[in-house]
Amino acid sequence: MSKLTIMHNPRCSKSREALKILEENGINAEIVKYLETPPTKEEIKELLKMLGINARDLMRTKEDIYKELKLKDVDDEEKLIEAMAEHPKLIERPIVIKDSKAVIGRPPSKIVDFLKA
Questions:
Q1: One of 4, 7, 12, 57 is an active-site residue; which one?
Q2: Which of 37, 58, 61, 86 is most buried as measured by Cβ atoms within 10 A of its Cβ?
């Protein structure tokens, strides 16, 4: 059985729902509370590769910090990644990682599909 990791924010209802889905499927995932232990720029780049998306697609664009940093006007992928490393609150959640693939659990049903794949 592959090792599963979930990038989790306990205060987020979708993240809690994702964790529940994993538990209901008998999966004992490694839980990474990414707000407490933020990923490095390299880890974010790796995550983007696993997800097959660009940095902007991984960002929570409705967060105040997104507006404060005027990230809407930033087109530099490297700068967006830096912003997420410095302000992990910007990272969309939850993210479930298995082997070299990952999925953003929004809606949480995406996790069920991901586990079957």
A1: 12
A2: 58
* pLDDT interval class at 116 (50, 70, 90): confident
Give the type of residue at 56.
R
Q: Where are the alpha helices (DSSP H) in 25-108?
A: 41-51, 64-68, 77-86
pLDDT in tens, 51-92: 999 999 999 999 999 999 999 999 999 999 999 999 999 999
Give the C-alpha distances (Å, rounded to integers) separating 16 from 11, 52, 113. 8, 24, 17
Q: Is there a cis peptide before residue 107, judged by omega within 30 degrees of 0? A: yes
Q: Rounded to two decimals, what is the model's pTM?
A: 0.93
Calculate ∠ Cα 103-60-97, nearest 5°: 20
C-alpha 27, offset from chain centre: 18
pLDDT digits 0-9 by tens, 54-65: 999 999 999 999
Beta strands in 15-111 (DSSP E): 30-33, 95-98, 101-104
Task: Return d(Cα 109, Cα 78) in angstroms, integer.
Answer: 31
